[in-house]
Amino acid sequence: MTGGVAYVLDEDGVLARRCDPEHAHLGDLGNPADEVRLIDLLVEYARHTNSHRAREILDAWESYVSLFVKVAPRGVPAPVPPASVDPASETRR
Q1: How high is the pLDDT of residue 77?
Q2: Looking at the domain assignment, is residue 73 inside a domain?
Q3: Is 31 part of a structural domain of the chain?
Q4: Residue 1 domain-assigned?
Q5: How many domains are contained in the chain?
Q6: Residue 88: inside a domain, yes or no?
Q7: What are the per-10-residue average pLDDT scores of the chain (93 residues)?
């Protein structure tokens, strides 16, 4: 369980345009605990489902980590805004 937090792999950089900011905060994996939590979730998912995609992400973690966006509902402390999204254009740099 993630406590209402979702970790979204935003490979195309479109999540910020598709998410309603009145209902959700978007941020990067702002602290090491988020990264550890996501890795643990991926490891468990891969173990239970034999997912090749999860294994691919784990094997190339350094290439994927910056593509994940932490999504939390309003009312949960706001995460740090994604460093890789330009708020003016809402596109990836």
Answers
A1: 56
A2: yes
A3: yes
A4: no
A5: 1
A6: yes
A7: 80 92 87 93 97 97 95 68 48 42
